Every structure is written in structure tokens, then in C-alpha cells.
From TrEMBL:
Keywords assigned: Oxidoreductase
EC id: 1.6.5.-
Protein name listed in UniProt: Quinone oxidoreductase YhdH
Pfam family for this entry, one: ADH_zinc_N
Gene name of this polypeptide: yhdH_2
Classification of source organism: Bacteria, Pseudomonadati, Pseudomonadota, Gammaproteobacteria, Enterobacterales
């Protein structure tokens, strides 16, 4: 779905909504409506980010791939997708107690504390990963770029820490790092269909059961409070019939 639904157009948490047909893409074959919603914008954004890495020549042989905001929806799907495609994933999270979930359930090879990246750092730091998917922004994104290996790519798709980006040109002109911006709202129809088709190939019911949980409409407000407190893991599907 496109067009700013839930932001500029009414329709969020509705059983029926009137929408512009250009905002919609066909539901991928092999996925149920519930599974499609479990993937949602988060999984779709993660897939766009992975595709951006692939288009810039990042392969499993390139080296490790960092995923920040690992316990969130985008982070969870990014780890799972990359792992299933054969990449070695480093997960950055503020909830180290979730390491078992990130490694044994989603496939991360390593977990690091987000504190390593969340404070102001140096213009260039030790090369630690070949690529990254960042949903955090701010100092984290700057440090991610500064620690990306020569010729690497960083896909920036979020701003959980903030909209600011206190970086410098060193990673880009000395290491040839590419910073790829990921917009999930105004993408072309072709891009959206490609991402959803890839998701249908990679994601299965077992993975969605690990990443998502279901609540009723009455549970939305409490879930939002938990989300803002950083206590929600993965995705939440709202059952509008309940």
C-alpha cells in the first residue's frame, strides 16, 4: 500500500477503506491476508533495503552485514531475510536479553549492544562490516557509515534515534561507501511488486509466527504504549474481527 495511508489518508485499523487503486499491489501468491499484514510495511521496507544492498553488489561473500534496531519490525525482518539468503548478520540492539531470539530464531550470527554505536564517534573507525541496514539514524547511522568497509553500502530506512545525521564525508570519499536512502511510501509500482514477490519467496509461516503476534482492536492503545517504551518485539497484527 502507498499514498500515505494512516498519515495523510484515513483507513488505518478499518475493515473497509476507500483507496486510490494506484496505491495498491496484488497480494502475493502463497501468502494469506493475515501473513501479508504480519509482513506489512516493516517487512516490505526490510526487503527494499536488502534489494538495495544487492543492487550495489553486496553478496554473502562480501562480508558481514549489520542490522540496527534488531528487535523492531524492520530489524527482525532484515535479519531473517539476510540470514535466509546466506548472509552473516550482526544484530545491534538495546535489548541484549533478546539475543536468543535474534540468533536462534532469526538467524543472526552475532549480537552487539546498541551503546557501541549510539554516541558521537570518530570520522572513520575500524572496518567492521561490508554493509548495513539502519533503521535508527542520528549518531548510530554516522557510526555505522564510519565502520563500513571499503566499497560497502549502508541502507538507511529509519530514524528511531533521530532525524539528525552528524557525519562527515570521510567514509564516502576515502572508502567509497554508498549511503542508499530507502523510501517505502512513494516507490514505483514495479519496485513494490518486486519486493512483495521476493518476500513471498523467502518468508514462510514459521518465520511469521516468530516475528509477529496478534491482538484485538481493544489492545491497540496498550500496544502503542508498549511500542513507545521499546517493549514490543517484531510485528503486531490487529484482528479487526475481535
Amino acid at each position: 500500500m502507498d499514498g500515505g495511508v494512516g498519515e495523510k489518508h484515513w483507513g488505518g485499523l478499518a475493515q473497509i477503506a476507500r483507496l486510490n487503486s494506484q496505491w495498491l499491489v496484488p497480494m502475493p501468491k502463497g501468502l494469506t491476508p493475515k501473513q501479508t499484514m504480519a509482513i506489512g510495511t516493516a517487512g516490505y521496507t526490510a526487503m527494499l533495503s536488502v534489494i538495495a544492498l544487492e543492487k550495489n553488489g553486496i553478496t554473502p561473500q562480501s562480508g558481514k552485514v549489520l542490522v540496527t534496531g534488531a528487535n523492531g519490525g524492520v530489524g527482525s525482518f532484515s535479519i531473517a531475510i539476510l540470514s535466509r539468503l546466506g548472509y552473516q548478520v550482526i544484530a545491534s540492539t538495546g535489548r541484549i536479553e533478546e539475543s536468543n531470539y535474534l540468533m536462534n530464531e532469526l538467524g543472526a550470527a552475532e549480537v552487539i549492544d546498541r551503546k557501541e554505536l549510539s554516541e558521537a564517534g570518530k570520522p572513520l573507525m575500524k572496518e567492521r562490516w561490508a554493509a548495513a541496514i539502519d533503521s535508527v539514524g542520528s549518531h548510530t547511522l554516522a557510526n555505522v557509515c564510519a565502520s563500513t568497509a571499503y566499497g560497502g553500502t549502508v541502507a538507511a530506512c529509519g530514524l528511531a534515534q533521530g532525524m539528525d545525521f552528524n557525519s562527515n564525508v570521510a567514509p564516502f570519499i576515502l572508502r567509497g561507501v554508498t549511503l542508499a536512502g530507502i523510501d517505502s511510501v512513494m516507490r514505483s509500482y514495479e519496485d513494490r511488486v518486486q519486493a512483495w514477490d521476493r518476500l513471498a519467496e523467502i518468508v514462510d509461516a514459521a518465520l511469521l509466527d516468530k516475528i509477529s503476534s496478534e491482538i484485538s482492536l481493544d489492545g491497540v492503545i496498550p500496544a502503542i504504549a508498549q511500542l513507545m517504551d521499546g517493549k514490543i518485539r517484531g510485528r503486531v497484527v490487529v484482528n479487526l474481527q475481535g
